[in-house]
Amino acid sequence: MGLELYLDLLSQPCRALYIFARSNNIPFEFKRVQLAKGEHRTEEFRKVNVLMKVPALRDGSFTLAESIAILLYMVQKFKTPDHWYPADLQKRARVDEYLSWQHINIRAKGSKLFLSKVLLPLITGQPLPPEKLEFATEELNVALKQFEEKFLQDKPFIAGSEVSLADLVALVELMQPVCAGYALFEERPALAAWRGRVEEAVGKELFLEAHQEIMNVKNLTADQFAPELLENFKQQLLKQN
User: Fold this and answer.
1) Distance (Å, rounded) from C-alpha 15 to C-alpha 13?
2) Distance from the CA of 30 to the CA of which of 5, 137, 188, 233 falls in 20 to 30 A?
């Protein structure tokens, strides 16, 4: 049994794994897990990841959860090019620094805006009040400013002159609010140029393919969700907002 990746490409971390594996010619079987249909809550999937979340990896009898752990596992197992996770101590530290910071900053704020603009109106049938949407947007803007000033600065990529895991993880997260209709790159030329470099590094066609579903997310309808998940999603989203 070869490497299996359990993914839903509507999920940012899943897209990062998919792009990384494909761009490095890592052989894997794509096991699609549709979150909206509740496929992550089945007993079959629970055998792969007891946490019932994607992404997940199975390599023979070995299973692994958490996207960063899976990325690092693939880096080491498949001996991918050094620039992804540099051997140089200080370059690697830059990658680790961003991967540690991003969870409650770029990821959290970008996800919140996406949920506010897309999922909450879809599930409740009501748009988020403008003042709450403005607050969520401003929270992301603060994180974007920190990202540019602290992590990107005037460098081509986060760790220096070459693309790394940090850049890939960052960009797939930023695409979530972009696909929800927030044109965050339009008035940020340095960020827009960095986006272009990352896409070029992984392959523009592959990047577009991985984002095809999320780019069409506004076509989602409530009846595409498993009924038992709708109320749960609704309560979670209302608590966050």
Assistant:
1) 5
2) 233
